[in-house]
Amino acid sequence: MFKLLIVVVYVALMLGIGYYCMRRTRTVSDFFLAGRNLGPWMSAFAYGTSYFSAVLFVGYAGRLGWGFGLNALWIAAGNVLFGSILAWWIFAGPTRRMTARLDALTMPEFLGARFGSPFLKFASALVIFVFLVPYSASVYQGLSLLFEKNLGIPYGLAVGFLAFLTGVYLVMGGYLALAVTDFLRGIIELAGVVVMVLFLVHLGGGMSAAVSTLSKPEMAPALSAPGPFPGWVVLWSLVFVTSFGPWGLPQMVQKFYSIKSEADVKRAMVVASAFALVLSFGAYFTGALTHLFYYAPVEGVPAPAGMTPVPANLDDLMPHFLTHYVPAWVSMVILLLVFSASMSSLSSLVLVSSSAIAVDLYAGLRKDASKESVMLLMRVLCGVFVAISLLMALKKVDFIVNLMVISWGALAGAFLAPYCFGLFWKRTSKAGAIAGMLSGLATMVLIYAKYGGVGVPVAGAAGMVVPVIVVPLVSLLTPPPDREILDRAFGEAVEPTAPEPEMVEV
Question: Which of 81, 185, 306, 395 has the most crowded Cβ, counting Cβ within 10 A?
Fold first, then answer.
């Protein structure tokens, strides 16, 4: 009862913030980017909380922490170095400048304006809407499994409640509501991870004993598991997808559009990277620690004393672990931690996907569309997207890690190369950007179709690498972009100067 009361208070606070922000949200720019006026702390926390959700703490921490043991920390290292530090250092400033010059609110608007291609704009919007659904569904599944195990709320009821909450407060306040609540949630997440790791290390006999035990080869069974790809290929594919993927993910890049000024970028980079360090290392290390409490049953081998058989579905591992091996108060802290991370990710996903239809398709096709109609459609589509994700989550389609990697691989494969080359290389052509987007999607789909779930990480990585080769190659073989577009995008157009006022002798 006490746990449920805390969740109710937390939800009431989120809805109150949504209502407050609704009264300050008047334009499409306000709703989607908070008027491009967020400071470094809010921008950094919005980035970090969107990066790490229930998929990390339930699907990734459990499945990958168990499968790769301490080797899963390589994923965390990549997330901090490439997904956070280099993402902010390399892309934040140029993205803020170019999107402001092109008056682009979304990734499809950016690609359409940068390459002068309505096709790129509309195709990008459809890709975003289609492939963000499985990601959103994976977050709902992960969080609902934790609610079911920790609070005793039936899975279906938990998914429905979370979907309703996401839709209501996001429809009210848009990105401003998301940013304000992200800041509060980020503080909860940081505190929760520290408490979780310290307690579990103590429970496992101390840091030195835990690391010594987890360093044994048998603690990383996925590295030697049979399959079409060696274990180390799967591991490094996951490092690649989750670390470089944010460079091209619309919901992550959006955070660069909305920061108040370039002067705030460095501070935001430091905050976001520190946040990523604590969250990612804490989650994967916790997942590896499950080896100290669970064992994989082997026929004819007696069970180790005091240990529990690992669940058949590894997505259930972390919810079971956090329910049976930690005190209620620690479990409550962790529940709020995962709840916070997940609500942020869900809100960001819903906002980006609804804008893909309202801003990029509807407003793009109807030049006479009023701001009020675009705002109304975005709010309606937020609810539609939540409903579609809810239906997929209720069906429990595939396992959580696959759902997330399919989404990241497809979106990063479609956008990473066109976005990066378009941002920094003037010779990138419209044909090159289109070829890059299509080749990334095709690579991802073909490998997944051949190998199924076991090939998802490799498919995601390959789908990101192939366009990096295709975009420059096709660009060099096709006509260069229009000079007027380049002048506008890179800020090189010379503005006519006003004539000097005549001097009048007195």
Answer: 185
The dihedral sign for the CA sequence 324, 326, 327, 333: negative
**Torsion angle of alpha carbons 146, 152, 157, 163, nearest 10°?**
-30
Q: Are 282 and 193 in contact (CB under 8 A)?
A: yes
**What is the enclosing helix (H) or strand (E) of 222?**
none
**CATH number for the domain running over 2-297+310-402:** 1.20.1730.10
* Nearest residue to 314 (alpha-carbon basis) of 67, 53, 52: 67
Alpha carbons 352 and 385: distance in angstroms, whole number: 10
Residue 431 pLDDT > 90: yes
pTM above 0.85, yes or no: no
> What are the residue boundaries of the structural domains of the chain, listed by start?
2-297+310-402
> Residue 124 has which token pair?
């990008």
Please check whether residue 57 is in contact with residue 192, taking contact to mean a CB–CB distance below 8 angstroms: no
Residues with Cβ within 8 Å of residue 311, at least 6 apart in sequence? 317, 320
382 or 100: whose pLDDT is higher? 100
Q: Is the pLDDT of residue 202 over 90?
A: no
Average pLDDT score over the chain:
77
The string of pLDDT tens digits covering residues 271-289 is 889 989 988 898 889 889 8
Check the CA dihedral 273-275-279-281 and report its sign.
Answer: positive
pLDDT at 494: 41
410/127 Cα distance (integer angstroms):
8
pLDDT at 442: 92
505 Cβ contact list (under 8 Å, min separation 6): none
Distances (CA, A) of 130 to 22, 264, 289, 350, 393: 27, 33, 36, 12, 15
What tokens appear for 49 in the block? 């909380």
Encode pLDDT of 220-270 as tens digits: 888 888 778 888 898 999 999 889 988 988 878 878 876 777 778 888 899
414 sits in which H/E element? helix 400-424
The tokens of 228 are what?
Answer: 């079409």
Beta carbons within 10 angstroms of residue 293's beta carbon: 18
150-176 CB burial, b ≥16 within 10 A, e <16: bbebebeebbbebbebbbbbbbbbbbb
- pLDDT for residue 163 is more than 70: no
